[in-house]
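Model it.
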Amino acid sequence: MTRPPAKVLQLDALTGLRGLAAWLVVVFHTRVALVHAMPPWLYRIADKGYLAVDLFFILSGFVLWHAYGERLAGQGLPGALRFWWRRLARIWPLHAVMLGGCVALALVLAATGRDTSAYPWQELPLHILLIQNWGFTPRLSWNDPAWSISCEMAAYLLFPALVAIAPWPRLRNATLLAVAAGLLGFIALYFGMVCAGSLTWDVPHTGLARCLPEFMLGMMLRLLWPYWHDHPLAALMAWAICLTALALGRITAESAVAPIGFAALILALAFGRGWPAHWLASPPLRILGEISYATYLAHYLLFALFKLAFVKGAPLITIPQLGAYLALVLGASFALYHGVEKPAQRRLNALLSPPYAPASA
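Modeled.
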């Protein structure tokens, strides 16, 4: 098995991809308010923006194995504890800040006699613990996008065990492919049976069945990546599979083709060849990727506040209002990334002893 050159290990194109995916979710959550302003073809794309979360799940498994997989092998419980602490330091502080913002909004709504059904107080402890989407709640509430972070938390808790159950780096290419195919088959079969192939059906109760196999699929992709990295046709084949899945998506259930297309897209970009990879690795898109977690967690609450402040008497917004809202999300993403996310992460990680730094990802 050949090793990719060190310069590829930064995977900058995947960082840029994460940034674009976060903004696709933003557009998805604002699409209804723009139904009369968007051309039909653009609205159809925006209406599928929830699939960006599936891309996140697969990408997360890829990147987590890239950063931690080999380092965790053989470290046992101490290594797992350090890993869990680092992941908690990564996701919980900003989640807590946004959840606090939702609590403040709920109190204002209650004080002014407005509807607070989207903020059920009895479920707040589940959100604080990031277990709200483990089948305990009947619908999304509080900061809706955090449902996927709750599922990611479950994947993080399982990750050290997933690393330990098999000697993954020593498995043959065909074995890893078989595991990946099995995961894809499970996703297609499960969602095909329970909801006619829709990946967004009953998210509070199907989120884990969506996240965990896709996360493991990302792990398998990262293990397969070194086998194919130096093959001259690998990127071309990955792009062909990605585009084929995109074409089939118009006539086939999304649960059967979207994970395949996203897996191929991640591999194609991870190879680091071609103009799409170079474009996504450009500094502006890398920056969007770096602040993407703040964008993802903040945009929903910001949209609720924006509509309360500036949209009177109707759920629709104008194009200038949309521009103002997107600028607000971008500015808030920078502020939260530099003012909350990174400082909290540094301070919490500094408590680890001995230092435990992941590989560059």
